[in-house]
Design brief:
single chain, 188 residues, alpha/beta, six-stranded mixed beta sheet, 7 helices, globular
Length: 188
């Protein structure tokens, strides 16, 4: 089994939005904010090569959104999913499986590309995976998370019949066991 970190770029996000109720005096020690309270975040995926399979865990933010969208998130840096894969000699057509840990735009935005005005799966020979519970949550999010789910990033996968739901204990490429983690809910 070979593991390779795939850097897909950086984006900026408001520190308060990212850390929520954690006081800025705590999080700013390890993630300093700029004058606009924005922190710079690296986006990384993981490529797992096992047997004859190339499994990509997450896909980064992608590049199909509008200028207005990117003006809120300030993409920066020289790296992208495509040039990082190219640097290690892996083509999009070589990816056999894509596991989407969750469907926030910065984790699954690169799963779908826009080509000739049409949305299509970015990895033409891949099967994509997520859990049905998370799929349902992404399609019916709570108000706090709603802006993190851009349906064009994942509904296309279902429409094109390349998305499969996985459950706890399932295996991808006979080597990667699915172990869903439920978020901790605050008591009110």
């Amino acid at each position: 089994m070979k593991l390779t970190t795939i850097h897909t770029g950086n984006f900026k996000l408001d520190g308060g939005a990212m850390f929520g109720v954690v006081p800025k005096t705590l999080w700013s020690k390890i993630n300093p904010a700029d004058e606009n309270n924005m922190c710079n975040w690296a986006m990384r995926c993981l490529l797992i090569e096992v047997n004859d399979r190339k499994v990509l865990i997450d896909t980064g933010i992608g590049d199909k959104q509008s200028e207005k969208f990117y003006s809120h998130y300030y993409l920066n840096g020289e790296t992208s999913l495509s040039n990082s894969l190219e640097q290690i000699g892996v083509g999009f057509d070589e990816i056999t499986d894509v596991l989407l840990t969750h469907l926030h735009f910065d984790h699954c935005g690169g799963a779908v590309v826009q080509s000739d005005g049409e949305l299509t799966p970015a990895f033409p020979n891949a099967t994509y995976y997520t859990t049905e519970a998370h799929w349902n949550h992404a399609n019916n999010p709570n108000p706090r998370e709603k802006a993190s789910f851009l349906k064009e990033n994942f509904t296309t996968l279902k429409e094109k019949n390349v998305l499969e739901f996985v459950n706890e204990g399932d295996f991808i490429a006979e080597a990667i066991e699915v172990l869903p983690v439920e978020p901790v809910r605050r008591r009110t």
